[in-house]
């Protein structure tokens, strides 16, 4: 089997597992945020788990208001996977500018740190 197809199948299986876990009570066993416990400030990713759980339960509006950066990141990754699948099936490469580049990660890290800073100042 092709390596790319295996990766896509693994992603689908992981998504289904997360959907199953979102509807269970296992999230009560998740550890508390160490940064918040020690400083009283929210870390840049605080609310990420609640955001993902709301997305998996279909509460997109709540997910966006809980943590917009994580919401947008998940949306980008979903679109990226769809583009990857389309390009995998066709010979012509479409929307290649969406493919990850090293500076995308740097920009994302700066944005999420700025979001964390602004969240604590407001």
Q: Could you tell me the mean pLDDT?
A: 81
Morphology call = globular
Fraction of residues in helices? 55-70%
* Helical segment count: 6
Largest sheet: none
Number of strands: 0
Unreliable segments (pLDDT under 50, ≥5 consecutive)?
none
The rounded Rg comes to: 17 Å
Roughly how many Å apart are the termini?
Answer: 52 Å
Strand portion: under 5%
Which structural class matches the secondary elements? mainly alpha
Give, in order, the helices and strands: HHHHHH
Sequence-ordered SSE layout with sheet pairings:
Elements (H helix, E strand, L loop, with lengths): L2 H20 L11 H6 L8 H9 L3 H7 L1 H22 L12 H20 L1
Helix pairs in contact: 3-4, 3-5, 4-5
């Amino acid at each position: 089997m092709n390596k790319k197809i295996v990766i896509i199948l693994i992603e689908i299986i992981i998504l289904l597992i997360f959907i199953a876990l979102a509807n269970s009570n296992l999230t009560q066993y998740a550890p508390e945020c160490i940064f918040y416990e020690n400083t009283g400030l929210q870390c840049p990713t605080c609310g990420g788990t609640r955001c993902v759980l709301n997305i998996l339960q279909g509460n997109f509006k709540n997910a966006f208001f809980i943590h917009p950066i994580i919401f947008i990141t998940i949306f980008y990754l979903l679109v990226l996977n769809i583009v990857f699948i389309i390009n995998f099936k066709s010979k012509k490469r479409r929307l290649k500018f969406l493919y990850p580049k090293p500076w995308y990660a740097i920009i994302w890290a700066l944005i999420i740190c700025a979001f964390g800073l602004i969240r604590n100042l407001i």
